[in-house]
Amino acid sequence: MTDLQKLTIGKALNLGLRRAMEEDPKVLIMGEDVGKLGGVFRITDGLQKDFGEQRVLDTPLAESGIIGTAVGLAVRGFRPVCEIQFEGFIFPGFDQISSQLAKLHYRTQGKVKMPVVIRVPFGGGIGAVEHHSESPESLFSHIAGLKVVSISNAVDAYWGIQEAIRSDDPILFFEPKKLYHSGALKMEVDTSTAPSRVFASQVVRAGTDATVVAYGPSVKVALDAATAAEAEGKSLEVIDLRTLSPLDLGPVFESVRKTGRLIAVSEAPSESSLTSEIAARVQQECFYSLESPVLRVTGFDTPYPPAKLEEHYLPDLDRVLHAVDRSLAW
């Protein structure tokens, strides 16, 4: 029987975590303030109360220790879900992630599995101080042995977090923090039936004139641009990548062969980024279909600015539409 609930992304994550914990007693949640407080974004709200302090653990302020402990727990058969409070705090744990978590399954020829999920609130738009609004996903997408995913809506949040927890490989789960509690993005989630291929790239709006590919918080920007472009008689096809490593670019190639144009959108700086990889791969696979160069709309190659400047830093509807106009005019 279909069970529809209208949920924000934040509530969908909370319910997805709850269901995973109900179904598997080996699922643990750990991180800074995830217990009594329910996390700074309240994503784990109520879970410690219902599942106890042995399964929802408030940790010291030590990301290296959080990840290292999760590695040990995974070796012993648990499925830890770690919360990094803000993406800029992840770097003390970078060595554990890249040198241990990502390598143990391969190093042991599959004998030791690493079913660890690291939840990472990321991106700007919340008016925060330094190290609270960055987009480091490209760094982790480059590390062999990790899967990196990013959600953009409540359906993917609810089912994606469960799928990640069930995986026997380590997954970095990037969550667009500015969209957690957006009422405008509430959507009906069928909590009884999982969609197929949760982590595959997905066409979220069909179009014919140009392809716009995005992920995480940039998907909403791309969809808003497509709506605005339609009023001007332009048809944009929007694709949500969902998985950043390994990239599922099959739907992107198929779309570009139809439209002949691609605009890649991301909040991260452009240099050596996921948008760079997308541009290179599309040029390689779709060269004879392209009617214009692949264009990118990204954050700038600077440290993330103070809050009063972030609206100028982040890709917005106007910057995406400008790229579309440039592509169509080529």
From TrEMBL:
InterPro entries to which the protein is assigned, alphabetical: THDP-binding (IPR029061), Transketo_C/PFOR_II (IPR009014), Transketolase-like_Pyr-bd (IPR005475), Transketolase_C (IPR033248)
A GO molecular-function annotation: oxidoreductase activity
Keywords carried by this UniProt record: Oxidoreductase, Thiamine pyrophosphate
Names of required cofactors: thiamine diphosphate
SUPFAM superfamilies the UniProt entry points to: Thiamin diphosphate-binding fold (THDP-binding), TK C-terminal domain-like
Residues in Transketolase-like pyrimidine-binding domain copies: 7-182
Keyword Transport attributed: no
Pfam families: Transket_pyr, Transketolase_C
Name of the protein in its database record: Alpha-ketoacid dehydrogenase subunit beta
